[in-house]
Amino acid sequence: MAQETIILTGDRPTGPLHLGHYVGSLLNRVQHQADTAQYIMIADMQAMTDNFDNPQKVRDNVTEVTLDYLAVGIDPNKSTIFIQSMIPQIAELTIFYLNLVTISRLKRNPTVKTEIKQKGYGEDLPAGFLMYPVHQAADITVVRANLVPVGEDQLPMLEQTNEIVRSFNRIYKTDILREVTWSKSVTPRLPGTDGKAKMGKSLGNAIFLSDPADVVAKKVMSMYTDPDHVRVEDPGKIEGNTVFTYLDIFAPDKQAVEEMKAHYQRGGLGDVKVKKYLIEVLNTLLEPMRVRRAEFAKDKSYINAVLKEGTEKTLAVAQQTMTMVKKATSLNYW
Amino acid sequence: MAQETIILTGDRPTGPLHLGHYVGSLLNRVQHQADTAQYIMIADMQAMTDNFDNPQKVRDNVTEVTLDYLAVGIDPNKSTIFIQSMIPQIAELTIFYLNLVTISRLKRNPTVKTEIKQKGYGEDLPAGFLMYPVHQAADITVVRANLVPVGEDQLPMLEQTNEIVRSFNRIYKTDILREVTWSKSVTPRLPGTDGKAKMGKSLGNAIFLSDPADVVAKKVMSMYTDPDHVRVEDPGKIEGNTVFTYLDIFAPDKQAVEEMKAHYQRGGLGDVKVKKYLIEVLNTLLEPMRVRRAEFAKDKSYINAVLKEGTEKTLAVAQQTMTMVKKATSLNYW
To answer: Is B160 helix (H, G, I), strand (E, B) or coil?
Structure first.
């Protein structure tokens, strides 16, 4: 029996979304929402694991991220947007699942290992941070999602989810929990404006979807190109030239880009000219988003209603899941 | 400003309650319920941490433990009996608190350390087991309890709770969480029928509150006394003689016990005679409990109603607590 595909995706509300999010996931969400059930989780509790001393930042960014969603064209009538902390069943499932996972297994998770090193936790590793993959298994299974679009670096998280799903179904002799598959983004990862491999909120190398036109222009003008391309008449390199990487991804006129590349490589095309073209391309993409964002931002009660309705819809599904879990574990009292 | 005293106490539903529970805590609860707000938690989720592969045992013992409560005279109109897993706010608070505690701190908990060794977990330590002190902090704070009667071996658990309470109140600049004090039981710990220091459900040395009269008689007849007291006419020892320890605790006629002790020490009083007296004493204590238990056991819907009402009352308080916590952490959306 073929089962319905249910997608879970989402973001940590720790800052505004940027072009990396756009090509890496937001665009896919806009496309998927037409024909697939899709939950978009604003992961405020996950954000709290490393921002517990700054909850106001998390709170404020819940609104900002929702505005970004609406700006890019996520339609709350097609996608279910919900706030993680408002679904108590996620916490309840996490507590259940924590019994099925050992501490040494959690410590072996490569994604968590890398992040622990990056954050320099050492001996002061917060329990919530180590537990997080178990919490994610709860996020996914509470809405009975079976498809989670993530980057390859997040695959160990999904493996942990599937281990928990299999343990649960085996121990409680049930099939209520679904294993999850991932769909790899076809778009290559967008580098930062500094040419570094990853665009990141906190790396100072991001172009945000909500950046005004002049800020985009300024960020593009300072972008990393070919450091050996000093004079206009010199031949320039395309490989590793971030401006051309962006043009390949964002410029709709592929032929124009190919012509510029050839010109740049044989010499006679200056960085400023290429950058001005990219500014035009990006602002053409971002301008309608800015307009929609400004429109939605005027009406805070609408944003609230979107979040509330999505959360209530998710709650109803979460309650069903919890009822099934309690029945499977015999802890269904009344 | 003096604040109301609120007690949280409870039991893991992993087996019937015994005389050790009776003198160590149940009797206190019956006394406290007259003048103090008292929550009694049936800790099914805690039981799951080391019984996750046998949930039916946990489920069945929820009813058995409730019957034991009613049998000893806990009055559901005075004490609030609730089922832990039915309060989702406990799970939600646990997730919040996990951010405030480090893994190394959890591993230093002496009670947990001892239990890990006893259970022989080694590298396969379930995450839920290590986390348990954090879950307990949620149990306690969700009903805003400030008094938790526990054995001295459980003090590190309360210290962990108070550390979490202080961290939370400091980080979120609030005073909504209350620190907890403990009240030490005045009764010495009841040894097992085998003379070992502790009576335990799983140690085969317990007299259960629900044991029929003939089972009590049989268990007392095989009790540990003075191994050197071979012939009736020999002098016997009182120290470490479990039968006399029990008589000291349970016999209402203290003078009769003192006379028996003197007789036993100078010789001429046989073990059988002393044991028969103890059987009489214990069955006099237990008989009214058995009668009440049998009465309540006839009406499963009453047991269910007791648990449901207590749980609903607790839910209302838990919701208030969660509202305060969400406000303090800025994660109050609507």
So the answer is: helix
Coil, strand, or helix at residue A7? Answer: strand
What are the phi and psi torsion angles at A289 (to 5°)? -65, -45
* CATH architecture of residue range(s) B213-294: Orthogonal Bundle (1.10)
- Chain A CB contacts of B330 under 8 Å are 55-56, 58-59
Phi, psi for B42 (deg, rounded to 5): -90, 105
What ipTM was predicted for this assembly?
0.93
B6-189+300-328, what's its fold? Answer: Rossmann fold (3.40.50)
Ramachandran category for residue B196: left, alpha or beta (phi over 0 → left; psi -120 to 50 → alpha): beta
Q: Which CATH class is domain A211-294?
A: mainly alpha
Mutation target among A66, A87, A92 for the B interface, most CBs of B within 10 A: A92
Q: What is the DSSP string of A250-297?
A: H-S-HHHHHHHHHHHHHS---HHHHHHHHHHHHHHHHHHHHHHHHHHH
CA distance A207 to A204: 9
Q: What string of H, E and C letters represents the secondary structure of A245-258?
A: HHHHHHCCCHHHHH
CA-to-CA separations, A125 to A55, A118, B99, B138, in angstroms, rounded = 19, 12, 9, 20
For B180-236, the pLDDT digits (tens) are: 998 776 666 899 999 988 898 888 999 999 999 999 999 999 999 999 998 999 999
Nearest CA in chain B to A130: B103
Distance between B278 CA and the closest CA of chain A, angstroms: 39
- Chain A residues within 8 A of B106 when measuring between CB atoms: 127
DSSP string, B257-292: HHHHHHHHHHS---HHHHHHHHHHHHHHHHHHHHHH
Amino acid found at B226? D
Which sequence spans correspond to the domains of chain B? 6-189+300-328, 213-294
Question: Which pLDDT score is estimated for B14?
Answer: 95
Task: Let me know if the fold of B6-189+300-328 is the same as that of B213-294.
Answer: no
For residue B306, name the pLDDT band (cuts at 50, 70, 90): very high
CB contacts of A102 in chain B (<8 Å) are: 123-127
- Report residue A187 as tokens: 């778009």
Q: Please give the helix or strand (H or E) that residue A241 lies within, else none.
A: none
